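Supplementary material to the annual report.
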Amino acid sequence: MEVFIEETDYSGVKYGCSVIDRLAGCIGQQVVLKSLAGIVQQMLANEDWRFRYIGLMSLSQLGEHVELNDMTPVIEIASKYFKDPHSKIRWAAFHIIGMVAGDCQPEFQTRFHQSIIPALLQSTEELVPRVLSHVLSCLQNFVEGMPEECTPPYIEPILNTVFPIVQNGKFKIVRESGLTVISSLAEASKTNFRPYYEKCIPYIYEMMKTYNKKEQKQIRGQSIECITLIGNAVGKEYFAKFVPEVVQTLLDITKNDISADGTDPQRSYVLSGWQRICVTLGEDFIPYLDLILPSLLKLVEDVIGNAPQEDNDYSEYTMPEEKKTKKERMDDIHRVNYNTFDHEEAETAINMILVFINELKKGFIPYVEKTTEIILKAVTYTINNNIRERAANCLPLLLEAVKESNYEFKDQVLVKMAHMFIGSLWQEVQKEFDPDTIMAQVVALRNCIDVCGRFMTQQELDDLSSKILKLLAESDKRKTEMKDMRQLDEDEEDNHTKTLEQEEEELHIGIADLIGVLFKTHKEMTIPLVNILYTQVLTKVLQPNMSDKLYKFGLYLIDDMIEFLGIELIPELWKELSQVIINFANHKTSELRQAALYGIGLLAQKSPAAFGDIADVCIQKVVDSFKIPKGNEAEKLYQYSLDNSIATLGKIMDSHSNKVNVPVLAKLWFTHLPLKKDKPEAHQQHEMLMDILLKGNASMLLGENGEGIGHLIKIIAQITDTKLSNDKIKAKMSQVLKSLAQGPTQALVEKAVVGLSELQKTRIASLLKM
Amino acid sequence: MQKICGVKNIEDEGLKQMAIQVICCFAEREPKVFEDDTKLLRDYLEMILAYMIEICETPDDWEVPEEGKRWRYLVFTNCVLSSQDIWKFSLKRQTILV
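Predicted assembly:
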């Protein structure tokens, strides 16, 4: 067994950096950066290299907390030290760039690719192996976060520089880092890598095939990663001709070249390599499944088959809850799992099976029966929670595989399997001691029901409802106990119980999702459950002074009632539920505001007649929500809330165009576009924008003289080829853009394009060429 | 705590880390104290940086690590991994596919 050698000089630096990181997190990045910048400036002027080194290293930590604009001076400082005479100073300068590339992607890459990539490529002339290896790791981090559109001009220069290092580098750490750059480049550039893959694969394949010495295992593993990432990037049509050889070599490595003691670095590369090949080939992977799946199933079966039974040494795990003291239950939650190498292997194997089912769907049918048998055992595997969680994740996917198949009796089989899975999951939820695992099981339950749709009888649904309410009550009880303990024993248990309390509240939200899917699939059959929730649960969790998480739980339930049951099924509750939603629409907490604003959008869509009475107050709430400033919460959460304000305006305009002042609302809506985080809402609203423009209502948004064209071009440039758009929206954007780019509005479009970034200009050009 | 950190040739370096840790825990509980008192924050940052400088060194084989040994060295993840353990680092790529 190999022994790791620690580098002593890092422990102190790492510790110091972690303290600065914690300070930035608790005091605030701006305050810390301001004080630190002053000190570091003095340190950088010191002749002693240690001062300059520590000064730079302390700055490397801040990207995680600071906006990119605030990091720009730090990046400029780092760039000045790329050629410092001292190797450690150069190393620290590259370290800053690598850290920022990870922390601020993709904005950092988008803004700085033109200066950073050439500088890093030039720095590969570095003579010190440790620093050269870090330059390459830095380049890898940078490339990894690059948007696909930025990559084409850099693929050739990077390959021309890095490939010779991989082929001829004298030092192992340098070659390894170089190979990872090529992997990241292929991954980031996707189909743009096609012109280069044929040049790369043969050499990398040669490494994969022939590097079988002990000291070559790492780089051989990386060659597997590289080749499968290239395959994934270029697509199966291009990769197909290499597949038989790559698959055969992977099988040979698996059978003959991986040591059994768990320390072989090739192992993880082989396992993830199989998953990548499966994802790349899709259905074409089915012929290979027979070669791989049986050994995976056997591996899982061997591990869980050797497990001690519940009635021996491990019986404590399943001790009835009522016999336990509070303290024992609390201890259960933090009980150490038995986590051996075998368990990790089994977990990875289940994960691979999960990927195979997810990718192959009906192609997995021949293996569903055997897999179900083993996975159901793994769901109840008492001594390792990761295995239980992973196994639970597989169950809905197995149902999906059956649902998509052409099997003659699939409907009956599906219902039978669903009952079996739900029964098994419930049994586990009741015994489970790990909050994360309970959550995974609840999510699995939710997804199983979602896949199967309406399949329960009223009696079965009522039974399930009772179990859910019991789970909710138990979680509530545990939460109260923890709160009591925290108050009694503040010093010792403070953070610990607070975390557990939060976990229970998270579970509440998971349960809300589970209930929501029952509303969605079983509609009117859930009315008895709705009545209990309304009278016993909602009234309690929506009282004043409850936690934000409980309010969120309540709002999620109400949103689901409105969305899936509609005013037709719960007319008598509609007014009260609407009022709750309206009350939270201007709440100071973004997550609650978001849920409430989403609810207003649903009210507008789901109750056309009833919404008329509350339209004015709802619109006012939405308008006011734009004015609420960001608090201490994450930018992302605030943005989600803003996105929902915009989307709700859009939904009101769309559903009630005859009752509201559309021109005024449309102007406000257009001014706040585009949405930036909420993908489903963004797709809906951005498509709606294009539809309005294509239907000839452009002047309502763009003004009689086209004064809104500049803003429209910015919106299009920002969302094209991002998750905020899709092919359908892209086609419509192209249509809109082409019509605006000719005739009297041409000059306005050209003027707007001038102010865009290079990346955005490329996007606009590609839309005009479509 | 400043005094502890200021002692030269202290026998147990861990003591200095503990001194820094004590103040950091205090800052996490009472961030406002440091937010309002920039001198205090600056003094504390200087104390951390001085400690980092004091224990900073370069092992002989830092520039050219000996081949065949499995070094743990710093990569861009705020944690320590060996070059042979980079796969954990590149799991990001693997999870995209899962």
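The radius of gyration of chain A is 29 Å.
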